[in-house]
Amino acid sequence: MTRLVRNIALLCLPALFTLHAGAQVSNDVVKIGVLTDMTGAYSDLAGAGSIIAAQMAAEDFGGKVLGKPIVIISADHQNKADIASSIARKWFDEEQVDAIADLVTSSTALAVMPIAAEKKRITLLSGPGSTPITGESCTAYNVHYTYNTYAMAAGTGRAVVQQGGNTWFFITADYVFGKSLEADTTQVVTSSGGKVLGSVRAPFPTTDFSSYLLQAQASGAKIVGLANAGADTINAIKQANEFGLTKKQSLAGLLVFLSDIHSLGLATAKGMYLTTAFYWDRDEASRAFSKRFFERHKRMPTMVQAGVYSEVTHYLEAIKAAGTDSADPVMAKMREMPVNDFFAKNGRIGVDGLHRHDMYLAQVKSPEESKAPWDYYRIVRTIPAAEAFPPLDPRCPSVKK
Fold it and tell me: Where in the sequence is the domain holding 196, given as residue range(s)?
């Protein structure tokens, strides 16, 4: 080889490497589908805000990864497992979607996860909470990112018992999430010296809680635990106040979002304890993100919406680090790389797919304490990741390996 030819060949090597890296992106695009509740009980806490969060993550990443465009698409699963699974199959088979994000509602998540695993595509769960997601139903291609029912119970349930709320009655959403939340909270209450006097299952979604609240009143329990979320929690709290239940008993909202407090108002929600993965006014980084989000959505982000931004960013970082969007190496990088952003500090994704990070016990401020719009929480304590989340569940197939 002449010196001229050799030099030309050496000059071409960087371009060849760039082409090779680009060729590792399937279909020359990284496509992320946000599958969420756009119209139902969870649309305020996820919905359009989750889509905006994913779009912001893609834009902040520069709109490309490994030289290929990042595309965000979205759909409404209507909180129905069959609709969610149908959309997921279409996305994977016809639209070459690489990952599905949010999946608020445990039933929709549990319906989509096995389909994604079969297709070797990744699910990034921010909205759902049930612990079977990283237990007996876990897959090698799933990340349970923002919170789970164990974390809610460990925070709110324990705090309420410590404050003297040692007898409980549950009003529980009658599907996998509500049952998981009730079970996890029951374990915390009893292990902390409390007692559960009974429970009742309410269909999801529910607008009339009158019969369930009457049963809670009749139980004589000090604490009425609301093992539900979104519009169901809002309706239950409003009707409990109308019924006069809160004159003699206290409510424990076991999964309460910033959007719920905004709907209820501080006069109704004041003093309530809750557990959250994120609060917009916690530090400079959370405020900076939230103010940009507010400009787009005209509402401060819930932990689910902030979680969508963080999980999509972490996914894109993993693609960049892996040099491919192929699911196996990307999942390996997501587990290898810590999460360090406004959402979590040194968060870690386990072999079970659970993202373990600090959580926060908060108390809702009174109207007099609030100094500005959306100034709703006082952070009572940081709950360390090891306390907030459960250890590896041996029922998870990935743990058994």
Answer: 150-276+359-383
> Is 143 in the same domain as 155?
no
Q: How far apart are CA 307 and CA 349, in angstroms?
A: 14
Report the number of distinct structural domains present in the chain.
2
> Does the residue 398 lie in any domain?
no
pLDDT along the chain (401 residues), means of 10: 42 41 79 97 97 98 98 98 98 98 97 98 97 97 97 93 95 95 96 97 95 97 96 95 91 94 95 95 98 98 98 98 98 98 97 98 95 96 95 93 65
